[in-house]
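Sample A.
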Amino acid sequence: MTTADLASQPVREDRAPEQTAPRARSARHGSRYAPYLFLAPFMIIFGVFVLAPAAYGVWISLHNWDFFLPSRPWVGLGNYLELFDPTALVAVQFWESMRATGLFVLFSVPFLVVIPLGLALMLNRTFPGRTFFRAVYFAPYVLGVSVIGVLWQYLLNANAGLINYHLAQLGIAEAIPWLTATPWVWVTLVGVTVWWTLGFNAVVYLAGLQGIDTTLYEAARVDGATKRHEFWHVTLPGLRPVLLFVITITILASANVFGQAYLLTGGAPSSETRTAIMYIAQTGFEQFRIGKASAMSYILALLLIGVSTLNFLLFRRQERN
């Protein structure tokens, strides 16, 4: 083809930008909805198994709901108001169970916050067998509560338990009623729970410790800081988000205690260790007063929401200071 032929060819305009513009717009629209598509499976599961049952539970709590009644009449806030009536037996027993739950939280949470932190500080050091010891301390956490209950029932039985047997060999003649009398029942519940769950908190602390910049420790040593100063001014500030997480989930888990008390003490002695979840389960599944049990559940949930919110506010204030 000659130069004249090339010159005679019609000039075609480049319309690539116009052709790709719709594609770019569709790509932008697709990227806008992509996060929601990824979230959709979780939101469906969360809605079906969490939000819908929660809303249905509120509806149940507003009725005199009994499986054996032909009708379930509307009572409005009657189930809630009855729980604040000091003359009602259900209110007295419910707040006694809330007191037991509060005592367990008060006794267990400090140990479950402090002991795992000390354990994590030790396991964060370099020494032979460190990985083995990490696994050993975490191992009890993988056991189910039924296994824990059977194991410690065997160890702490007042008459045939191994612990009382060995104490007798040491000269302690009187058998300690670990599962039937106060204050030993609280020692049992708190001790077993700490032994069972401290490994989880220790692992969380350990992850937080490994996230602290080591140059901060080096700078502190250059300034002449001791180990105590490093802990208070480097380690604890670096662990503040982890501490918030550990304290919050530990309070929530301790307030929802059920399996240990149910399997080890059965609420004894005289309903002293009958926790709120135990009483709610007894009211709902043994006495079949589902409406009252639902109202108790939501009162407990609101109290725990309040405690968690207060915990977040306190930590936020410390961060500002």
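Sample B.
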Amino acid sequence: MPFTPGLELSRRFYLEAVRPLLDQALPHTPHSAARLGPGSEVLGYDTPRSADHEWGPRLQLYFHPADAREHAARLSIVLSERLPKTFLGHPTHFAATGEDPGKDIRVMTATDGPVHHRVEITDVTSWFTAQLGFDPTAEITAEHWLTTPTQRLAELTSGAVFHDGLGSLTPLRATLRWYPHDVWVEVLARHWQRVSDEEAFVGRCGEVGDELGSAVVAARLARDLMRLCLLMDRHYPPYSKWLGTAFSRTATGRRLTPVLTAALAATDWRTREQHLAEAYEAVGALHNQLGLTARVDPTTRPYHSRPFRVLRAERFAEALLAEKQKPRSDNI
């Protein structure tokens, strides 16, 4: 059977199976429907392998809070009893795997009885607050932005909205779509500082014969550079499983993937450092293209009096933080 991406499967499941039952059970009750939250399909990275757990015909149904409280239990029973047992060849019943007693991990399984479906019935504020740890329909502070994992923000702004009868889901996702300007600048500065903190260690570890340590540092730096590129491209970096996939789908990623791969494949620190230096200069040039600060020289240089080739990445962090302190007119 040809693979149907999870978002398309969920969209059709809503339109062809869930929506008709919803219209019969609650014909005059406004709702919104979407597939958001955890799951490789939400980010568009699912493959047939994804079907082994928590993947399949699933979605969220959002109602006004009072309607959710009044109708959720009954609607869930209606769906359990009347949803088809399979949809597009996939079971709609999700059985517990029992592999992790602390988590309710489920997998599509055939059943002869009512289905244990994966249709969440909730309201927008409660669901988003549970995902984020704060209410995004109220004021979102800089602390909220800076302490929320980028993976979580990606999960809530990717995926798909199938219907927004409430009229609140789409604008809320637009609010979360990207950082406010000053927060973005702060996030970029912090990532540049992470690079600065370790860039000299590739050579220093290698100089004392610790090639393994040098390689570990190089891998950490490669990760930080990849995240920086995604952030400069206004994409929330996903967690480690999908970071390389997300990076490779950007123009910078396609150019730098061979360079970073060569750095990680190197068996001596001088070769490792050479490839990293090429990557540093490319990412530094990308910073200058954004025009967020005055131009910062992107060429690499010695680390003080030591013979290690670095970018001195703190210069980019300092430029960003200095720019952040300047007053901004309302039309910026």
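B remarks: The mean pLDDT is 95. The CA atoms of residues 146 and 187 lie 7 Å apart.
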